[in-house]
Amino acid sequence: MNLAIIGGGPSGLFAAETASLQDLSVALFEAKPSVGRKFLVAGKGGLNLTKSEPLDTFASRYINPEAPFNFWPSTLAHFDSDALRKWAASLGVDTFVASTNRVYPKELRAAPLLRRWVQRLRERGVSLSMRHKLIGIKIENRIALEFAAPAENKTIHCDAAILALGGASWPETGSDGSWCRFLESHGVHIQPFAPANCGWECRWPSSLLSLAEGKPLKAIHLTAGNHLAKGELLVTRYGLEGGALYQLGPTLRNMESPAIHIDFRPHSTEEQLIAKMGPIQHNFLNEARQRLRLDDATFALLLNSSETEPFDSSKSLAHRLKNFFIPLKGPRPIDEAISSAGGIRFSELDENLMIKKLPGVFVAGEMIDWEAPTGGYLLQGSFATGRSAAENAALWVNRRNHGRC
Ligand SMILES: Cc1cc2nc3c(=O)[nH]c(=O)nc-3n(C[C@H](O)[C@H](O)[C@H](O)COP(=O)(O)OP(=O)(O)OC[C@H]3O[C@@H](n4cnc5c(N)ncnc54)[C@H](O)[C@@H]3O)c2cc1C
User: Fold this and answer.
1) Contact 13, 30 (CB under 8 A)
2) Per-residue pLDDT reduced to its tens digit, 277-304
3) Are strands 239-241 and 200-201 parallel, antiparallel or unpaired?
4) Whose CA is nearest to atom 37 of ligand 1?
């Protein structure tokens, strides 16, 4: 076999698709009984495949401490969101651009796309082996991959390999991060995993939960340190969830005492809020609530504010509405996170996504140390790196076997 791809998530499947167009024998190995389990989970949220936005804005969403500065612009230029939409269309899956510029399949499901994708890979001669968990790699004359397989462990030899083993969130889908062990045994440095795009825990009193649990905070501005995020939050039993908070994850993880400030009324100044409240004689907070049309969750937060200053004047309430402080205990466990930060460090890779210490072994997808917010960036990044890794691996095999580029 020329090229072995290990991991049947979007990055591995797309690497297989790219390689299947080359003159190579390609085999894909997956630890679980079926491929694309996390992709199917993503489909439950409608499958936000990518985002329709200019390339430089798109590329600026990726956070990767060590990546060369042009890594994402060039990788995404090679396979951008239009290319992803065309590819989906080639499988008979039409997509649409939502008002948020997020791109979804019209069916809002992953299963039909995955089914046709796997069928096409088989038709193109890619062999797929399930229940094959990679447990070791040796670089000999060729690359030796050691698998824990159903009957017994087996070793498979190939000219080049692409590891597309995913990050460490939602381990039940197969991405359990256990691959770190055998790569570290080769001296490959892995940035420890951390939950990304996840909820954060706070200490809510039961009086707050009885009023606000499950209620949204809409059209708010959120700041952590110097970073601002706009959007929605949801009050949950354990704390807060939502896209605005996910965006601040990288900042919050680096804060000694993570905390956010919420501006509940980003489009009004304190003076405007004071004017709106007017003179209030009795039952201050309830009157103010009506005049400012505060929703349940905002009202519950104000009522249970941990700050000591009482709301006895329009001025103090307006100030708090524009600048509400919430200390956070920490992120939710990585098992629940949409994605993970951390993974194989860019400094361990050459410009072709090949592991410098393991010549002929390439990597793709979320197992590399990058992170991005929700919005289709995670899948687009997985597809685009899968494609690059496959093209580079094909060149490597051709050079090795035929001395040609
Ligand atoms: C709830 C949820 C919703 C999401 N929604 C979206 C969304 O709408 N849009 C978006 O862009 N992203 C979304 N994502 C994120 C997206 O699904 C991932 O970023 C993407 O699946 C990563 O692709 P990957 O191929 O790198 O890894 P994975 O999809 O994690 O695939 C890795 C594969 O490798 C296999 N594997 C692992 N170790 C081994 C081993 N040792 N041997 C053999 N096989 C192994 C695993 O079983 C798995 O099949 C969502 C994620 C979750 C959890």
Assistant:
1) no
2) 888 777 778 888 889 999 999 999 988 8
3) antiparallel
4) 165
Q: What is the pLDDT of residues 10-67, one digit of tens each?
A: 999 999 999 999 989 999 999 999 999 999 999 998 999 999 999 999 999 999 878 8
Give the DSSP H/E element, type plus range, for residue 155: strand 154-158
| Domains of the chain, earliest start first | 3-195+337-402 (3.50.50.60), 200-331 (no CATH)
Q: How far apart are CA 127 and CA 147, in angstroms?
A: 16
Distance 338 CA to ligand 1 centre (A): 9
Rounded distance from Cα 357 to ligand 1 centre (Å): 25
Closest approach atom of ligand 1 to CA 8: 49
Contact indicator for 159, 393 with CB cutoff of 8 Å: no
Ligand 1, atom 4, residue with closest C-alpha: 42
Q: Is the CB of 195 under 6 A from ligand 1?
A: no
- How remote is the CA of residue 39 from the centroid of ligand 1, in Å? 6
For residue 43 and ligand 1, the question of a CB distance below 6 A is answered with no
Q: Tell me the whole-structure pTM to 2 decimals.
A: 0.94
